[in-house]
Amino acid sequence: MPLSTVHLLRHGEVHNPDRVLYGRLPNFRLSELGREMAQRAADYFAQRAEDGAKISYLVASPLTRAQETAQPTAAALGLEIVTDERIIEAENHFEGLSDVKRHLRDPRHWRYLRNPMLPSWGEPYSGQVARVMEAVEDARRAAVERGGEGAEAVLVSHQLPIWVTRLAAEQRRLWHDPRRRQCTLTSVTSLKFDGERLVGVEYCEPSADLLPGAANIPGA
User: Fold this and answer.
1) Neighbours of 16 (CB within 10 A)
2) pTM for the complete prediction?
3) Which of 5, 37, 149, 167 has fewest C-beta within 10 Å?
4) pLDDT (tens digit, 9 = 90+) per residue, 145-169?
5) pLDDT in tens, 105-126
6) What angle do CA 25, 28, 31 make, to 5 degrees?
7) Is 54 a member of any domain?
8) Where residue 104 sits, what CATH number does that domain have?
């Protein structure tokens, strides 16, 4: 069975001066720093290709920040961006609010906090894993059809869907503390496959030196 890799790339920093939990809201674009991060990601994948990686398929969430993050990689590798709704950000009851901690003290929201293991304030973690892994499998197959043995795909998505997919891949519980996610801006979580069998997970941060100056809202 052919070996292959699917890279889950988180988008870059978003222009969000009001620190809104933007979720699936439209038109939240990358900041200047976010565009620099997107170029760093493109440089990372271009170097992989120069070193012999066969990156043959590129997918992005439909949200603006993911599409903009994918553009430099598409240009560097000469790939079309395929849009896939299945790797979109998670649904969240608190979407559109700023200063979410303050809103958590409002009794009107308490019913959404009743089960953090689900979580009750948004899309179930298990549902996110299911839809992302469907997209991963389709991208893996498409990459192998185009690139053959060792082919790679890149999927530009969002922190929470990527993180819970990694937790599932590593057979860890999906419930977690959002502050402890290892999925920084334009980080790359790589799922390694032998045929259809997931055999490993790797992680790297092409924009590590840019992170100290970045705004980063945990999201869903």
Assistant:
1) 18
2) 0.95
3) 149
4) 999 999 999 999 999 999 999 999 9
5) 877 887 878 898 899 889 999 9
6) 160
7) yes
8) 3.40.50.1240
